[in-house]
TrEMBL record:
It comes from Vreelandella populi. Keywords: DNA-binding, Transcription, Transcription regulation. Residues 8-61 form the HTH cro/C1-type domain. It comes from the Bacteria. This is HTH cro/C1-type domain-containing protein. InterPro entries: Cro/C1-type_HTH (IPR001387), Lambda_DNA-bd_dom_sf (IPR010982), LexA-like (IPR039418), LexA/Signal_pep-like_sf (IPR036286), Peptidase_S24_S26A/B/C (IPR015927).
Length: 217
């Protein structure tokens, strides 16, 4: 049977990541990734959890058995494609900006070249499925939005994935004088919500919605 380090390298190569790219996803350096693959250091649980979230078969890495992990689709990436983890916004209910450890509904293969042409880092993109009609016309119920986790700056007005008092929501952001933020629904039936400067602790910006994937009606 092959070793953990060899199986880890096999999974990295299967998904098309360099050691630097995989390390960036998991929050480690290229050197640490090399140490894991050469078995000079044992991978930690949070590292394996991060890999599990982007399609690495961690069950295979640890055991040598290629049975499918319940949180991962068994996928073989085509050349030039990026694996985008797709989450149900209602299922992804945990606190914090990280999606690692959340259940993945599916995995989307998306051309890396198209993402980079838009100035997007494929490693920072996740997909969320939209629920409800508050953003109707921009994002309809059941649509998917590809979210750039690297852009959390409200100065660039647009549609953002937010964590508001522990609940993930998609709203249009507008900065107001004095540092307040308007959370705007594109459906006119919903009133804007103001987040005052003293209440900013209840708000976390998880990323900017960049690409819509939905039905043609």
């Amino acid at each position: 049977m092959t070793s953990i380090g060899i199986r880890l390298r096999e999974e990295r190569v299967r998904l098309g990541f360099s050691q630097t790219e995989l390390g960036d996803i998991a929050g480690i350096t290229k050197n640490t990734q090399m140490l894991y693959e050469s078995e000079k250091r044992v991978p930690k649980a949070d590292y394996l959890s991060a890999l599990d979230a982007i399609g690495v078969n961690t069950h295979y890495v640890l055991t040598g058995n290629r049975s499918i992990s319940p949180n991962v689709e068994s996928i073989d990436l085509a050349e030039g494609m990026a694996a985008i983890p797709m989450y149900d916004i209602e299922a992804a209910a945990g606190a914090g900006r990280s999606f690692e450890g959340e259940p993945i509904k599916t995995t989307l293969q998306f051309p890396r070249s198209e993402l980079t042409a838009l100035g997007l880092d494929p490693m920072q993109i996740v997909g969320v499925q939209v629920r409800g009609d508050s953003m109707q016309g921009t994002l309809d119920d059941g649509d998917w939005a590809l979210v750039n986790r690297a852009n959390r700056d409200p100065k660039q007005e647009g549609v953002f994935l937010l964590l508001v008092s522990g609940e993930r929501r998609i709203k249009r952001l507008q900065r107001l004088a004095g540092g307040a933020l308007y959370l705007i629904s594109d459906n006119e039936l919903y009133q804007p919500e103001m987040i005052k400067p003293q209440d900013m602790g209840d708000l976390e910006i998880l990323g900017r919605c960049e690409i819509r994937i939905g039905r043609v009606v």
